[in-house]
Prior knowledge:
heterodimer, A: alpha+beta, Ubiquitin-like (UB roll), Fumarate Reductase Iron-sulfur Protein, Chain B, domain 2, 2 domains, 5-stranded mixed β-sheet, two-stranded antiparallel sheet, 8 helices, 30% helix, elongated, B: mainly alpha, 3 helical TM bundles of succinate and fumarate reductases
Amino acid sequence: MEVKLKVFRYNPEDDEGKHFDTFTLEAEPTDRVLDLLEQVKNYVDGTLTFRRSCAHGVCGSDAIRINGVNRLACKVLVQDLKSKTVKIEPILGLEVEKDLVVDMEPFFRHYKSVLPYFVNDDPPPMKERLQSPEERSRFDDTTKCILCASCTTSCPSFWINEEYVGPSAIVNAHRFIYDSRDQAAAERLEILNDQFGVYRCHTIFNCTDACPREIEVTKAVGEVKKAIATGRLE
Amino acid sequence: MTLDRKVGLLAGLRYKGGGPMLAWILHRITGLGMIVFIALHVIASLLGGDIGIAINTVYQSLYFQLFVVFGIIFHGVNGLRIIVLDLWPKFIEYQRESTWLEWFIILPVYGLTAFVMISRFLAGE
């Protein structure tokens, strides 16, 4: 089948500014959007720049906007797109460095701000720190985050203000806040109880829709909001 | 040099967020609509005279009233939906159903109200 790939282009080293280039390609219905981008880069225009690494939906490198919505290029099949014209743009709210590559620094800065690591000052036991299956399942959903930034860059609150910590950082805080072995929940809740913290979430659900790991992002944010409001972890 | 991160209104609106995003946009628009309605009331009362009468004509027109009534009903019901989801996050997994329930309430309530308003308008009341 014939597919028209309309790709956002920007090269800081030329005077063309931002624009779109259209490539007409032959594709199989089972090709992924990433395959189309690879086809352009390898056979048509080697200057096309985008991030990719594992190409199997695990590393989270290739988050882009496909036909107006955040998706991983390696997880979307051509046959699942309702149009034979595919519009490819960089994710919103982060500075574009070149073509589809954005500066992820603000995203990772927010991620680091919520202490996304295990904190427990008790002396380590002889064996492992025990946890029941029920306690483990409490935060199972939020362990799946691959830090692709699809959720944060689909959020209008983040588009408006880069200082908003964003859904991804809250999801990663949730992963440790609800871990029965961790001891820094209160500290993380204090960090998120900020004017640029959880209350910037207006329950728009773009994040939940954009998440390639199907994490219930808005639910995790809601649980953190409630924990801050009530002072209890339920 | 990198491209500015700024997301313009049109770029934001072009993002295909689906029903919940539309509900959020509509919530903002209807909220602003109510502020305009109340502001027009206050300004008309303050100014009086020909300007006051001109403003009265705008907010008493059937179209404006139909918009305001829709705005009040939508803003109220959607606001309640958000409050419920915020207070009981476990219901968030049913957010799609909550949106359907919201319209299930809004459409008959607004339809009936609009029917009464239009009937009275046509009857010259």
